[in-house]
Specification:
The complex is a heterodimer of chains A (495) and B (460). Chain A has 495 residues and is mainly beta. Chain A starts with a helix and ends with a strand. In chain A, strands 1, 3, 5, 6, 7, 8 and 9 form a seven-stranded mixed β-sheet that branches. In chain A, strands 13-14-15-16-34 form a five-stranded mixed β-sheet, with helices on one face. A five-stranded mixed β-sheet of chain A has the order 17-18-19-20-35, with no helix packed on it. Chain B has 460 residues and is an all-alpha fold. Chain B folds into two domains: 229 residues, no CATH class; 159 residues, Serine Threonine Protein Phosphatase 5, Tetratricopeptide repeat, CATH 1.25.40. Classes of the chains: A mainly beta (495), B mainly alpha (460). The interface between A and B is medium-sized, with 29 and 36 residues. Strand 18 of chain A pairs antiparallel with strand 1 of chain B.
Chain lengths: 495, 460
């Protein structure tokens, strides 16, 4: 009987031993090159409160990986694994906390069939600028028109914890366009599409309310949202969107608008504010965002195509600005060009001003406004004090960079990129200092990142910073969604 | 062998023959709308939910439905087990049991499950949930009467809630209540109670085998008729065409259509693809049932089933992007959010052909974790990035050569221009020529046909 207990115990211990891969790195061949690891964390700048940068060897042939992280004070953090390095969470945070504003050195050894190889160390710079609590994103397969399981999730950036806010298993339809006021989840906007369509709004931490945002005087439902810094207004576009598909070439899908306008929703008065300058038939207006001081509305606009024309590659959006008076909720009477991308035969999308008012980050692609399906799409940084734009070469890749947004401190940028495999969107982060210096982007850390990203058939859609857990009650939200009640909204015209 | 077990074997044989001979493509259909992975994350995501164990066992057994006879054996064994456990719960003894008619009633839950499984959206997890329930009750009854049995019953009830009762994934439509399954479940729980009560108060004459066998015959005839009447042989035929197209059985398709001409869209689509693969489509078009251009390359609809044969045609034609989109959308439309081995395989192939190797690797890595697709995945993985090997490959190399040279936009509807562009980008693509000619004939586009002939004449 005793033997019966002991044998499985030994087997389990052996199993754990091999799983953990605890070996001494011996007789290692010294490599002059730095290691090729996945994700590429070589020379990155990370926030002091980021989750451990666990990694794998890029080539998948390593039998065991060993990493030693050292600092100038003689502290050492060691980890070893068969597939992936897995740093202890507490030890990692302690080490980063001790090296705020300094560099860490990472020495990687990998065991292959011919024995151990030790690579030239690489450094990781620990920025004293911390990052927000987490990010919120939609997980969805990067497909065409039909969707399967999807949901909105939040992820704690200092650990690996992920939580679903709401999933489409709780109701019939899809969910999109989550938005917060400068990362504050107390102000939240979320769209539900399908038979239970609604816009869910939470203002100042109050209860969720389901709205019907379609009115007789506007094009359709509210679509792309952006909160006014005061929390009193939300700018929305309203779009008639279609999709077509490529028969060849690199890009697979083209998402385009056949019509679009802009409108600002007054949360307090429950009415949409309209301006004739923002709803012109001959112009596609989209992606409205408020400036940091809330006195300007930036947006993208392109000359509309003639009816039934499918010359999609001739639709090019530029960046414009119009005055907005938060006291009265009225618009200025002229539109100003900020970046004339169309003149450069390029198209501009997703303008996002930093909250300190210094920069505006945008995506530049060859044409259109749905840049996630454009492999050539890159991020650019506009210095709002000089009006000069430059590509964010340090953070860009050969593949798609598209949606992005600023942390509440305006020092970190989260960006969507398809550089990993050309199709599945992953969140990356880069640091932007007060002078506009940009660092190399690093991928959202995961435990065993190769396994995680390869086995997950979802794109991380619209990553938005949140400065605290959302405390979103998914069950209550699904009851509201499945209920028939929708609050209608009014319209106030400035003309 | 005891007579009561002989009837069980008889019942099991009937189930086996039914699913093996009359309903095999329903089993193939079930298999292709799920993807069982030997992966701890996959297993955990299922078992952590109420009813997850039954669901997991259902998915595990469904993967064997790729081979219909194996699937039929599994179903036969499960239904036999349900019947035997029900009989055991009756505490039925042929020589001493008062209520002899009970014997036939022991087949009722199994027959109801059989009826349930006639529906292509019924999932095997439901059958396992009933079986687990019966096993748990039987296990409790094995414990001698007393507090231990009561404790065991409480534990069994809580466990059962977690592994079977609480589940909602026993039918593909999440909003549909599977009445037959719950009838089977209830009958499996309530019938033993009723029968045991009747055993106490009812006394039938002991006429050896006559009454039990009569009761079995009666239940078998009634339920057998119900099964036959409710079997959807029309759907079975449609699924057969889809199956034959999936496995590229072009000769078998023609043999089948020559015996009985298909009168449904999927059948006609598959028939036309087989004719085209034999180079017979345009010349023999009207010797077969046609459905206009909707029988050629039908518009893509937002469901998981109807686009699949069309996607096969797109793929064989070399319209790889169109095929990829169609297969992707079909998989996304699977109602219970499951994935499909068939779709994963095709998505790996299309990504490989268009050179999207890392995406193909994702699908292949997942397929490596399956029982029946892993061998193919392992053989295909070395092709990734190997341009020469792909060019030499009889299927992928050919389809790469057939690919569109010119980029244009497409949507749900195939136009003659798409077929023209396909054919004229590689005139070796005889399948495209067959479809193009058929398109002109079916739409009565004489001008287009004449233009095609002129163009061919010029090129020759």
């Amino acid at each position: 009987m005793k033997q019966n207990i002991i044998l499985p115990f030994y087997l389990l211990t052996l199993l754990l031993f091999f799983a953990a891969c605890t070996e001494t790195v011996s007789d290692a061949k010294q490599e002059a090159a730095q290691p090729q690891i996945y994700p590429d964390y070589l020379g990155v700048t990370v926030p002091v409160n980021i989750a451990p940068l666990d990694f794998c060897m890029a080539d998948e042939k390593a039998l065991c990986i060993d990493a030693i992280v050292t600092d100038r004070h003689g502290n050492i953090l060691h980890s070893q694994g068969r597939e992936s390095i897995d740093f202890d969470l507490d030890d990692w945070h302690t080490l980063l906390g001790q090296n705020r504003g300094d560099s860490l050195s990472v020495t990687v050894s990998a065991k292959y069939d011919d024995g151990w190889h030790t690579y030239s160390p690489f450094s990781v710079y620990v920025s004293p600028d911390s990052i927000d609590y987490g990010i919120c994103y939609r997980l969805i397969e990067p497909g065409y028109e039909v969707w399967s399981k999807m949901g909105i999730y939040e992820r704690d950036l200092s650990s690996f914890d992920e939580r679903a806010l709401i999933e489409n298993t709780q109701f019939e339809g899809c969910v999109n366009c989550h938005s917060f006021n400068r990362g504050n989840p107390a102000d939240m906007s979320l769209h539900i599409r399908g038979p239970h369509g609604a816009t869910l709004l939470r203002h100042d931490g109050g209860p969720l309310t389901a709205y019907n945002t379609k009115t007789g005087q506007t094009l359709g439902l509210c679509v792309y949202p952006y909160w006014h810094p005061s929390g009193r207004y939300i700018a929305y576009s309203t779009n008639t969107t279609r999709q077509l598909f490529h028969s060849a070439g690199h890009n697979r899908v083209e998402v385009f608008d056949e019509a679009s306008d802009l409108q600002v929703y007054d949360v307090g008065k429950n009415e949409l504010l309209l301006s004739p300058l923002l709803k012109q038939d001959s112009v596609y207006e989209t992606y409205p965002v408020f400036s940091a001081d809330g006195r300007s509305l930036y947006f993208c606009a392109a000359r509309a195509l003639p009816e039934d024309s499918h010359q999609l590659d001739s639709i090019r959006y530029s960046l414009y600005r119009i005055d907005f008076d938060p006291q009265t909720g009225s618009f200025g009477n002229q539109i100003e060009t900020v970046v004339d991308a169309a003149a450069q035969h390029k198209s501009l999308s997703f303008p996002r001003p930093s909250y300190d008012g210094r920069f505006l980050c945008y995506t530049l692609s060859d044409y259109g406004q749905f840049s996630i399906w454009h492999h050539e799409a890159d991020l650019w940084l506009l210095d709002l004090s000089t009006g000069e734009s430059r590509p964010m070469t340090e953070a860009n890749s050969k593949d798609t960079e598209s949606f992005h947004n600023w942390s509440t401190s305006s020092r970190w940028l989260v960006l969507s990129s398809r550089r990993d495999d050309g199709l599945f969107t992953r969140p990356y982060f880069c640091h932007v200092d007060a002078r506009g210096n940009v660092t190399k982007a690093f991928m959202l850390p995961q435990r065993n990142p190769r396994r995680f990203y390869r086995e997950r058939f979802f794109s991380f859609n619209v990553p938005e910073f949140i400065n605290a857990p959302t405390r979103f009650d998914g069950r209550r939200a699904s009851r509201i969604i499945n209920d028939e009640y929708r609050k209608d909204i009014g319209v106030r015209k400035d003309f | 062998m005891k007579v009561e077990y002989l009837c069980t074997v008889l019942f099991g044989t009937a189930v086996l023959l039914f699913f093996g001979l009359a309903y095999p493509h329903h089993l193939h259909y079930q298999e292709q709308y799920q993807l069982f992975l030997f992966d701890s994350t996959y297993v955990w995501e299922i078992v952590r939910l109420p009813g997850g164990v039954a669901d997991l066992l259902g998915r595990f057994s469904t993967q064997f439905f790729l081979f219909a006879w194996v699937g039929a054996v599994i179903i036969a064994f499960l239904l036999m087990a349900v019947q035997l456990l029900t009989l055991r719960l009756f505490n039925f003894q042929l020589s001493t049991f008062n209520f002899q008619f009970a014997y036939g009633l022991s087949f009722v839950p199994s027959f109801l499950l059989w009826l349930f499984l006639l529906d292509e959206n019924a999932l095997m997890g439901g059958v396992w949930a009933v079986l687990l329930t019966l096993l748990a009750i039987w296990g409790c009854l094995l414990i001698p009467k007393g507090w231990k049995r009561y404790v065991a019953m409480i534990i069994a009830f809580v466990t059962l809630y977690w592994i079977a009762f609480g589940g909602s994934h026993y039918y593909r439509y999440p909003t549909v209540f599977p009445t037959l399954l719950y009838a089977a479940w209830l009958s499996a729980i309530l019938l033993p109670l009723v029968v045991r009560l009747l055993h106490r108060f009812y006394r039938s004459p002991h006429t050896s085998y006559l009454l039990p066998l009569t009761s079995f015959a009666l239940v078998a005839i009634v339920m057998g008729v119900l099964v036959w009447k409710n079997a959807n042989f029309k759907a079975e035929k449609v699924m057969q065409y889809d199956f034959m197209a999936t496995h590229q059985q072009w000769n078998r398709i023609l043999e089948t259509v020559n015996t009985e001409k298909p009168n449904n869209q999927i059948g006609v689509t598959v028939q036309n693809l087989a004719l085209a693969m034999h180079g017979m489509l345009a010349d023999h078009l009207f010797e077969y049932n046609q459905n206009g251009i909707l029988g050629l390359l039908p518009d893509v609809k937002e469901d998981a089933t109807s686009p699949m044969p069309t996607a096969e045609a797109f793929y064989q034609l070399g319209m790889v992007y169109v095929a990829q989109r169609t297969v992707f959308e079909a998989q996304e439309a699977i109602l219970d959010f499951q994935k499909s081995g068939r779709c994963y395989k095709r998505l790996a192939q299309t990504n490989l052909i268009i050179g999207s190797y890392e995406v193909a690797r994702k699908y292949l890595t997942a397929l490596r974790k399956t029982l029946f697709y892993s061998e193919w995945a392992n053989e295909t993985l070395p092709l990734l990035g190997n341009e020469e090997a792909i060019a030499r490959h009889p299927e992928y190399g050919r389809l790469r050569q057939y690919a569109y040279h010119q980029d244009f936009y497409f949507s749900d509807h195939v136009t003659p221009e798409m077929l023209e562009s396909l054919f004229f980008s590689n005139t070796d693509n005889r399948l495209a020529l067959e479809y193009l000619r058929a398109y002109y004939i079916l739409t009565n586009d004489r001008e287009g046909y004449a233009r095609l002939l002129r163009e061919l004449g010029v090129r020759n």
